[in-house]
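Hi there. Long-time user, first ticket. I'm pasting a complex I've been working with (about 288 residues overall). I'd like to know whether the download I got is complete or cut off, because the file seemed smaller than I expected. Thanks.
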Amino acid sequence: MGRMARLIRMDRTGHTTVAEWAAGDAAATDAAVAAFREQLDLGYYAIVSTGEGHAEQVRELPLDADVVILRLPIAGG
Amino acid sequence: MPAAAAPVLRETAAVPWRPRVDAARLRRRGRGWTLSTLAHTIPFLATAVLLIALEPLSFPVAAIAVVHAWGIPALYANRGANVVRPRPRAAPASERAALGLLGDLLGHEARELHARTGLALERGRLGVWLVGEAGALLVAPGGRRVDCWCVRVDGELPSGDRTAHLLLALREDEEGFATVANLAFSGALWRLRPRLARAMRPALDAARARA
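Hi, the file is complete. Here it is re-exported in full:
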């Protein structure tokens, strides 16, 4: 089994690991994809780092990512 | 093969009336703020000079005019400093967890600076950013000018998560971030610095040094 990737949601607890999966673990991957879609339906945006100082929003769970972070929308204050 | 389109922050869809911010637009806005400051200052100073010239005994009124000339720009600068004022803390365990995640997003130097000042330093194309919990400062190239942006994330979140939200949005689309955020102040860095919390000033100095 490969290393575990994580889907993390920033929330009032600091952060919560919503799902973990590893390449080759079909059940965990399916569960992670389902959890990912559920969080997007709740209004979260999914972000992956794409190098130093860069990030990208994704609409499908990137299974090869190490960490996917769920954040809420921002607005002018 | 055409280059891939740059990612656009989704939140910009909520402010369709705002033109997308870029470096040229920021410079124009900055000039507007400078002119506005002069428009607030010069009439009061001119009034003070005129009063003294016409009647030296009117110096108390002239002094009030000078105070206005100084005070109105100071109020704007104070508003700018307020965008990075710390918000109420969440439970200690939540704060620790959030700071851990934020630390993972920052490099060693930025992490150490954030621990000391509460501001996360991030280099961008528009300048050097200092990201706080409910706003960000942008030190323009050259380090003489700073823009103060008010931007929030709703929900009960610990401070580290608030900063991480803004940092990730900034990393997604810097110009989109500046489009969504509200500009609270734009002016000389020396006007802002004394109004920042003392603990945050080293972050501003570090940003100026890198701008």
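A couple of notes from our side: The helical segments of chain B are 23-54, 59-82, 92-105, 108-117, 159-172, 174-180, 189-192, 201-210. Chain B touches chain A through 47 residues (CB under 8 Å).
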